[in-house]
Design a protein that fits this description.
Chains A, B: It holds the Pfam family Homoserine_dh. Chains A, B: Its EC number is 1.1.1.3. Chains A, B: This is Homoserine dehydrogenase. Chains A, B: One of its GO terms (molecular function) is homoserine dehydrogenase activity. Two copies of one chain form a homodimer. Chain A is built from 13 helices and 17 strands. With 387 residues, the first copy, chain A, is α/β, with parallel strands linked by helices. Chain A is 32% helix and 27% strand. Chain A has two domains: 114 residues, Rossmann fold, CATH 3.40.50.720; 226 residues, Dihydrodipicolinate Reductase, domain 2 (2-Layer Sandwich).
């Protein structure tokens, strides 16, 4: 295999070195395409170009490895590569989640393989396991912690009783959170990954925007104290669950009991729990972000291309496909200061607390109704799922 | 696919029911072969026979699922099935580990597939991940807790400061340990699994007897207290590690720090940690024994046969194969009463303790020398690996 690689960040550089070491992966890097050709590089200048066509139009290159940030630019590269009969490896979750149907069609039409294990939970081989090991229709649920930055922030907040703002600042200083952390802290990054995994787990194609998502930005010290008093951790949980013929899928900050395995998933780690009829739950755990974990997933994809591997999307080829559904009841903790929701916004309120530092209600709501609820926008109001 | 199943224990019964529920797995049970045909069964009598040839000589049956205890009887069944061109699914670790080379040859010669995910850590899809996801030569180590019964016993001993004898009794009463627990508590069961996994991880074929193994039967309350004081858990750790061109592989009771992920693996759970160059460690966790976890692995194998899956044993087809090696230094804790080893049995003794309840030395030994060391047989002497 001859590889053309877009991007020469740490993943690209690591790939170069590890491919030199491996005897089993028969892949050679033909060229890197980079933005700034004038910047000094650690490798021979002849390996670099800033002209994408030098890779895309090069017939010697069989595989394009796309490692750039910009999802739209990545999509254009990937599309052209596939239309030119090249296989593609990508770790771009936004690009995959937003263009899934087109990417499926491009694979079919051009008879090429697109692999993207690095897009979901980096080093955890979750897509491959859903494709191969859980290839039957017996899977009942998939849930986990899909975003390392927010998990780092939440772990610190709980363990050190620190405020969201301070921990975010620390995470940014350590390089665990982007300078614009919106995608992470609003749950959007986790939602992209959930979107991709829902297709591999259940054959459900959905627009990421359709998945009900709440972020972690409104969590305050009152919420943290509530968690500590009740032996909870707060985790940003992405979840897809089969309910009859429907899929219930959300990304929500959630109280999980300290003894649970998801609560044990700390700092920048990711975890996935899979459940299927006839099997106990299965837990996968590893670093969910970072250059080495992502590089390792990309490498495994390249290696798999070496023996003609492609995703078969077995669940999607079934006739009894599932639809996304919102008409579910859910238990929530709603914390507020002065202004509160109406009781009629709840199916039932089962606990009410008021005190000098804040107030909360615990009760059952309809997700359908909550999705467009105005009361979610009340200042100083925060929602955390329970159980 | 038409299945012939040997054994109608809980796994066989569960398989029957789950195959009824699944639309995606196109497999039908043709017949069960059981020992006692007179025993009343929950299904139609016509589904049962006590004549193995009714399955093995039946041309309608494409797949034999072997779920019996007796490893030698299982091997005869599996061999004949494969020689008759049938694919085989088995969960019999002893049979696989002891007959690996013959089974490889039978697969090659008859062009059939033999799958045995259920033989190692039940519901954890470890073999499939080693075959497919970690299919390159970059894996550096594999370690974990491969035996649920001993892990249950060790968890109880540490958490409840209970004696080995009492906890073993409790485990037997609960059905977590066999009435003859030797295979489990002497580390032999874990060794079979390690033996199988060494082949899939590194392409190393080895006789299970060659792997240096110590059991947990000699652990006493002195050892438990030592663990507690030092924030350790004791775990029976199976490990295979690449060291240059060699593989270092052992099954040993080991002190692991309470904060480590293997220490968090409690009770009957199993865990595997994989490490490879260029990747952070990857952790897989799930129930390692029991009918449902095993059944789920067997089911996934059956499902994989539906699309022609077979192990490719990619690591074994490499030229630079690894050899097992014993000439390694290891750090051990040796606890004793009156009689102790000679200091010359150690490379170096770094700590010595003596007290009213027992004595211990901590130091470095040569595995090579320890393998045949007479001092291991001293009564009231126990060895636990450190780090």
């Amino acid at each position: 295999m001859k590889l053309g690689i877009f991007g020469f960040g740490v993943v690209g550089q690591g790939l170069y070195h590890v491919l030199q070491q491996s005897n089993s992966i028969q892949a050679e890097i033909e060229k890197f395409c980079i933005k700034d050709i004038t910047k000094p590089r650690s490798l021979d200048k002849a390996l670099f170009t800033d002209d994408k066509n030098e890779l895309l139009h090069n017939d010697k290159i069989d595989v394009i490895v796309e490692l750039i940030d910009d999802a739209e630019a990545a999509f254009e590269i990937v599309k052209e590569a596939m239309n030119r009969g090249k296989h593609v490896v990508s770790a771009n979750k936004k690009m995959i989640a937003e263009h899934l149907e087109e990417l499926l069609e491009l694979q079919r039409k051009n008879k090429v393989s697109l692999l993207y294990e690095g897009s979901c939970c980096a080093s955890i081989p979750i897509i491959r396991n859903l494709e191969e090991y859980y290839d039957n229709d017996l899977m009942t649920s998939l849930e986990g912690i899909f975003n390392g930055s927010t998990n780092f922030i939440l772990t610190k907040m709980i363990n050190e009783s620190a405020s969201y703002e301070n921990v975010l600042k620390e995470a940014q200083d350590l390089g665990f959170a982007e300078s614009d952390p919106t995608l992470d802290v609003e749950g959007i990054d986790a939602r992209y990954k959930l979107c991709i995994l829902l297709y591999h787990a259940f054959g459900l194609i959905t627009n990421p925007d359709e998945l009900f998502t709440l972020g972690i930005t409104k969590i305050n010290t009152f919420d943290i104290e509530f968690a500590q008093k009740n032996n909870y951790e707060i985790k940003l949980i992405a979840r897809g669950k089969k309910v009859g013929d429907f899929i219930d899928a959300t990304v929500l900050p959630t109280f999980v009991h300290q003894s649970s395995i998801l609560a044990q998933t700390k700092n920048e780690y990711n975890a996935v729990i899979l459940e299927s009829a006839f099997s106990e739950s299965q837990f996968l755990y590893g670093k969910g972000a970072g250059d080495k974990p992502t590089g390792s997933a990309v490498l495994s994809d390249i290696s798999a291309l070496g023996y003609g591997y492609r995703y078969e999307y077995k669940k999607a080829s079934r006739t009894n496909n599932f639809a996304l559904h919102e008409d579910f009841e859910m238990k929530v903790y709603v914390r507020f200061k002065d202004q509160h929701p109406n009781e009629s916004d709840f199916i039932e309120v089962v606990e009410k607390y008021s005190g000098p530092d804040g107030n909360y209600w615990i009760g059952y709501v309809s997700r359908q109704k909550m999705k467009d609820a105005k009361w979610l926008e009340i200042p100083d109001l925060n929602v955390i799922a329970l159980g």
